Every structure is written in structure tokens, then in C-alpha cells.
Amino acid sequence: MGKTSRPAGVLLLGVGTILSSMTISGFLLGYVTDYFLDTMPLFLLGFGFLGLLGGTLKVYKLLTHPDFNKS
Amino acid sequence: MNITVTLLAQVVAFIILIWFVNKVLWKPLSSMLEKRSATIADGLAAAEKGKKEQELAEKKATQVISEAKQQAAEILSQSQKRGTEIVEEAKMQARKEADRIVAAANAEIEQEINRAKEHLRQEVANVALAGAGKILKKEIDAKAHAALVKDLAAQI
Amino acid sequence: MAGSENSSGGGTVQYIQHHLTNLCIGDCDPVTHQAAGFWALHLDTVIVSSLLALLIIVVSWSLGRKLQTGAPSGFQNFVEIIIEFVDKSVKDTFPGHNPLIAPLALTIFVWVWLMNFMDLIPVDLLPLLASYVGVQYLKVVPTTDLNTTLAMSLTVFGLIVFYSIKMKGLGGYIKMFLFHPFGKFFIPVNVVMTAIEELAKPLSLALRLFGNMFAGELVFLLIALLGGAATIGAGLLYILPLQVILDLAWLIFHILVISLQAFIFMVLTIVYLGMAHTTDH
Known about the structure:
Chain A has 71 residues and is mostly helical. Helices cover 76% and strands 0% of the residues of chain A. The longest helix of chain C has 46 residues, at 187-232. Chain C has helices at residues 12-19, 43-65, 75-93, 101-117, 125-132, 146-179, 187-232, 236-277; strands spanning 24-28, 35-42. With 281 residues, chain C is mainly alpha-helical. Chain C has one domain (11-276). Chains A and C meet through helix 1, helix 2 and helix 3 of A and helix 7 and helix 8 of C.
């Protein structure tokens, strides 16, 4: 990972918390949606799953394509 | 979790702090740093300029010196040339004079020789005439044959 | 205000819990002294962080008035090193130009570092002093309060949204939500996914700092407990030096941790704001 461009390399600092924070924010968003739509466990679970999926995807992307953030 | 109104208080504190840091610390210090780097750059540029100017002056000085040297050499060579020229001219004139004198002398000698020849011819003609008169005493009248004698003398 | 459970000589759990309880006013639970609703103010968090902010302001103000343009000396040199470090980080990771980013990064770095630094003060010292003046609860480190870290990361989040809309335009920002991870055939999923992703940025910032500091504080508490247990037990001679060594080791390690966490918070803020400034994404 020595040849990564600097922004992507710096982004790797946050790779550890991406998965958990995206899952949490998925659940959070689902909770808020459910709260307003009164459909309690539906969006909570759905968005939580999406967050988990997105987090996994993002971590994968970050680790396999180090300079994806190159502008 | 206990998310409370503390959150809002901290947001406000954070924003105020950002504003203060920007105003009190960042702006004066970064402008100062900029000024300092500008000063340093100016100093370096001035030093560079001075160096360049000195170099230029040195170059100019050497150029002037070499020019002067060249000029001096030129003048020297020219004067030498002029000197030889003068000498040459004098020689030439002398030679010409000598030639002229020689020529005049030669011409005089020639003239003298011619005159002597003329004289000699006259003499010879006269002697011949006298001789012939003596030989042909009666038959030849000097006056009658004067043209003939003259012609003869010219032929000799 | 003071509950009966925080008397000296309490159990281990109570000791730790007591140390991790904020000085709460307003809508608080009278027994556990925890915040019961939204309208509860963690007074210690606010006061300590504000004092540190005040320290930054006063120091920088007094420094700013006698700046030396020539060769800097002593403290100014130190501050210049920090500023140049922050400036370099910004220039390395931030595309384009925005005059707000560098002071923001500097503020985050210095403030977070100072608040984390409160962790290095012996855990019992300030609460003990506070108890003499009648304050029963005191959680010294503001960054072990999720409110502080979340407040900063939400401010950063607000800036991210603001600059995203400013740079990409409202249409561009919405487009990013619609088409970002999976292309145009998954628009509903994309909206949720991008929203989650954007929300995860401040959340990860806040949670990382909070988690690290909370864990660090906890370790300090546990090390302190070692000595506390020893005063009752017999093995004082063994445990006390062990405690000192452990505390020192963790202290030295923790200096690294607090600097690193402050740095990470700063750099990720810069990077996230930089991503908000680039049009492609």
C-alpha cells in the first residue's frame, strides 16, 4: 500500500470504523424513518442491512482500489 | 446513549472557537509567515541580483581592459606600419632621386656623345672632302658639290 | 445532589461508574445522576472544554499581539511548527483552495488534543479537588463525552453538506444521492446508501474519538483501581510499584494515542471536506 496517493492513503486511516459506523448510521436512518412512518421494524432492518452492505462494499473498494479518491 | 443539550452547547463552543482561532491566531500568524517568507525571498533575490550585477561588472571590466589592450596593440601596429611606410617612402624617394640624377647624367652623357659624334662626323666629312679635293683637285668644285658632301657626311 | 452510593470505599463498579458520570444539571435522573432526557446539560464537559477553548484563545491572542517577523523565539516557534504542520496536512490532502479549512483543521487539532490531554491528568486528582468544593461528580475529559465528539463531527458534517451544495450545486448534490453507488437502475437504494454513507462520516469521526478516549480513560481507571484494591489487601509492596509502572507505560502510550486521534480527526475532516469540494464522485 506504499504507492497510494495521499488522500486515499489518509482515508485508509478510517477503514476500521467504516463498517461499524455505516451499519450504525443505517440503523439510525432506519429508526428515524420508522419513527415517522410508524412501520417499526421494517426500515430499521432494511436500512441496517443496507448500511452493512454499503460498509462492506466501501471497505472492499478502499482496500482494492487505493487511489479511487484521486481527483 | 445520553445525547443531551450538551451537544448544542458544544457545537456553539466549537463554532465560536473556530471563529476565534481563525481571527486571532490563524490570520495574523499566516500573514506573518507569508511576510517572512516574502522577506526571505526578497533578500535572496537581492543577493542574487547583487551577485549577478557584480558578475556583470567584472565581465564589463575585463571587456574594457581587453578592448583597451587591443586598441593599444592596434595603435602600436599602426604606428609601426606608418614608420615603415615613412621609411619606405623616404627610400623610394631617394631611389627616385637617384634614378633621376642618373638619368639626367646619362642624358647628358648621351648628348655629349651625340655632340662628339656630330663633331666627329663633320670632321670626317671635312677630312674626306679635303682628301677628295686634294685627289680630284681640278675636277671637283667644292661649291658645286657641297650638297653631295653634306649628304655624305649625314650618311656616315 | 450527591447520591449515597458514591461514598468512599465503594465497589469497583461503583468507582468506575462514579468516574464516568457527568456533572449533570437539568433533566437528570436523581438516583443514577444520568441524563434522563434531552434537556440535561453536562456541566463538567461544557466547562472543561470551554476553559480549554478559552486557553487557546488567550494564548493565541497574547501571542498574536507580539508576533516577531524575524527569527522566532521559544513559544512562537512552537506554535509556528504546529501551524506549519497543519498547513502542510491541508495542502497535501485538500484539493483546491478554501481559506476556512486550515483554521478549522488547526482548531480541531489543538482543541481535541488539549481535551484529550485532560486524560493524562491523574484520574482521581480533579474529582478529588472538586469533591472538596462540594462537586460530587466530575468527568474531566470532554472527549469521553459523546456529546463533544458528536458536536464537532456534526459541525463538520454541516460544513460538508454546505460545501457539497455550494460546489456541486443543489442539482449535483441530489444527483450524487440518486446515482452514486449502483447506477441509475437502483435509485431508491442509491438514495438510502448515499445517505447512510454521508451520515457515517460524522458518526465514524465522533465514535472513533469517543471510543478511543473512553477506553483510554477506562484503562487509567482500572490501573488506579489496582492501587485502591491494594490499600485494602496485603500485597501493597508488589502492587504499588506495578501500578506506577503500568500507569507510566499507559501514560506514555496514551500521549501517542491522543496525538494520533487528534491528527486523525483533523485529517479525516480535511479529506471529507476535500471530497465535498471535488465535483466527481
